[in-house]
Amino acid sequence: MAVHRASAALDDRSLFAEYPFLPGADALLAGESVSVRSLLEEGAYESARALGRSRVRAAADDPRGSRDLDELARADPGVRFLSFLFARLVLSAAPTPTTLRRWAVAEAKRSYARLAAVPPEELIAVGRRLGFTLEEEGNGVAVPLVDYLHLATPIREAEFRLARQEVRSGRVRVGAVRAARLLQEAVRLRLTVPIPLSADVVESVRAREAELLDDVARRVPLPVARSPAAGGTIRPDRFPPCIRKMQRTLEHGENLSHSGRFCLASFLHRAGADEETIVDAYRGAPDFDESITRYQVEHITHRDAGRGYEPPECDTLRSHGLCVREGDPSAAVPADQRRDPLCFETFLRHPLQYYRLRGGVLVDRSEGSDEDGVTGRAAARGRSDAPGRSRSTDRQ
Ligand code: SF4
User: Does the predicted model carry a pTM greater than 0.85?
Assistant: First the structure.
């Protein structure tokens, strides 16, 4: 449980040093004229660059932000701000967005560690500077409904669902720790957007920081596309639109909701993917953690003597905003952009049913089943055209 400090309100300089992503934080550089080129090249800023590289490497290793950076706590506020700026600049020029998104998660979690323990006035000051009109209300914080929905939607924890909130006069009242979690999301969203850089600046950053970018690319697990042979009978080209969209989301380093992650793992397991292949599917997630992912995948796939959880039905996916039957305009492949007629058939109730109707084969590796083959149960479900309807195992 977070213990709120009864500290005096921070002055602007201290506030910006703690929260360098806030608009106006460049006031920390009053009296200095720091250009992108000088930050990248001049000897005077080497300590800021070294600290910035540490921030980037720490995030690549652990996006949960649990790794403390002693040198960050000891640094002068101006150096801390410049190190933040440097890290953001370098990652905005990185060849893939995954490293920036992973760093955004780490920096947002670092902010949360502080925000969850500060007096409400500091929490509110940070929220307001980020553009959210938070107000103190009783022991908690009132958040405008529109802002709440914007910030809470990507959060996977069930207690953030609107149905569980106290809503009055267009405002959602939350405790201070929950408000801090919402602001964590605000910070993540803000930092996920790369700084717009001209082509020559991108080129210069990549050339000067090639060693750092190579090192980070090695540390950040990237999505691995395994050959179908590695997963036995898997036919990714026959996956339904919802599953393909979930895969794209993770491959682009974007966040996938808890329901989506559960659905993807349980679907891949039933489609015959081995555990390594399923874990690989999550490597692009901004908060990917190998040991946690393995634990969760094992939990999903080992259930029921290895049969695994049943993926959710189409109705459930629709209610979670995960059905993509109308097409995905952001997809690169034209086939993924179009609406899928099979998904509009009244008999279609389940993503596994879609997969089988398109020629995919369901696999059951539970004890007593034919190893890597279609079991009697799977085959029977195939004939009934109703996989997932035999019981509800959608634990979300
Ligand atoms: S209709 Fe079902 S299978 Fe098709 S995209 Fe929606 S949830 Fe997926």
Answer: no
